[in-house]
User: Which sequence fits this backbone?
């Protein structure tokens, strides 16, 4: 007996609907898709989900963000990936991390010893060094920090969950594209946030550790949202600079 098909993620359902409408000719090549606000209302989802869907459609080659004025349909039928292959988006992943890692930090505040706290502070130093390296994008110390908190819980299942969430982050094309845009916007791991988490664990305060971890990952979501908004603005500025450069070269002839 064949198993039931896995349910579509929300962003995948939006892509499937819009992809079908593009194929039917409802949106012609070069035509602007409805604005984000309209899509939020139509599909009854969050801005985060719509943003994931739009970036996913860009990766698939179905649309492009143009001059900051909106998202436009490109030539149909040249998808590089299917929506299923996009896997998990950065918003979806970070929401899961916020729930799981909040409880992980709370448990670590009860079980961590002085060696654990010292190890976390050492990782913080390496994270600061990584942030100063231009072009560094793998965030090794950031991953090590969050896994080390899981190890401080003395719970191997918790370690496995945290490692898996981070591995998914690197495996998913959609997640990696969103994180790349965030890094290009200048977003780096927040050292102050991470230091506050260590201080809460060192203080043996599980409620505080849970709250500051959730606050930290909530800010990660907000940074992703801002970075993907800024992506269109940066494109406009880049195109304007290129136009000015061409004009200056023409005037000099």
Assistant:
């Amino acid at each position: 007996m064949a198993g039931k098909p896995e349910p579509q993620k929300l962003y995948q359902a939006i892509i499937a609907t819009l992809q079908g409408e593009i194929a039917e000719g409802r949106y012609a090549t070069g035509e602007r898709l409805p604005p984000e606000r309209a899509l939020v209302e139509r599909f009854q989802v969050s801005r985060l989900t719509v943003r994931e869907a739009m970036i996913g459609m860009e990766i698939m080659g179905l649309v492009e963000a143009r001059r900051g004025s909106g998202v436009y349909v490109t030539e149909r039928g040249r998808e590089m990936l299917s929506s299923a292959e996009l896997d998990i988006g950065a918003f979806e992943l970070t929401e899961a991390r916020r729930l799981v890692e909040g409880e992980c930090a709370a448990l670590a505040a009860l079980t961590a010893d002085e060696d654990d706290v010292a190890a976390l502070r050492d990782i913080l130093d390496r994270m600061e060094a990584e942030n100063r390296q231009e072009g560094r994008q793998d965030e090794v110390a950031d991953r090590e920090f969050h896994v080390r908190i899981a190890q401080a819980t003395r719970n191997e299942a918790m370690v496995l969950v945290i490692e898996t969430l981070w591995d998914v982050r690197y495996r998913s094309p959609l997640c990696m594209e969103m994180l790349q845009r965030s890094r290009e916007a200048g977003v780096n791991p927040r050292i102050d946030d991470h230091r506050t988490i260590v201080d809460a664990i060192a203080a043996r305060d599980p409620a505080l550790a849970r709250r500051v971890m959730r606050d930290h990952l909530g800010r990660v979501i907000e940074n992703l949202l801002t970075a993907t908004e800024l992506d269109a603005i940066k494109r406009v500025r880049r195109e304007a600079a290129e136009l000015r450069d061409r004009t200056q070269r023409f005037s000099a002839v």
